[in-house]
Amino acid sequence: MNTNLKYAIYTDAGGRQINEDSVGVFSNGDNNCYVLCDGLGGHGMGDIASSLVVNVFEDQFKKTDDMVNFLGSTFTASQDVLMAEQMLRKAKSKMKTTAVSVVTDEENAYMGHIGDSRGYVFYKNKVKTRTMDHSIPQMLVLSKQIKEEQIRNHPDRNML
Length: 160
Description:
The protein is of the alpha+beta class. The chain is 29% helix and 25% strand. Strands 1-2-3-4 form a four-stranded antiparallel beta sheet, with helices on one face. It has a two-stranded antiparallel ribbon with strand order 5-6. Helix 1 (46-62) packs across helix 2. The relative contact order is 0.14. The model has no long low-confidence stretch (mean pLDDT 86).
């Protein structure tokens, strides 16, 4: 594993009875994969969805050394597997999750996400960059209808 890259894992149930977060950290030679999925609370079965998607990331990661295309193909594969499982369990309106992932090779790091789970890049203890939510309030910020600090308390903060 790249010794210059540091990571920590912390999850919180967020006041819910079930923690719907799932995390995976995988290595394959000089390549690494970090993935966090947060089941959408209130929909039910988010814990199953998040765990399922982390498993897809692990399975796909074991099969490739192409980090450039890994995230795009794996997000697509995750969606396909998740939708098939929703159909199998008759849970089409349930089993939803966000996902954020970073993969690294010897020289580069690639980050992708879907939903309102964020990925952050820190440099010298400061946020250098972060992903933008795929949420209604984030779109309102981008269109200058609300301010960034209004996202957290916005009534549609969990709407994607």
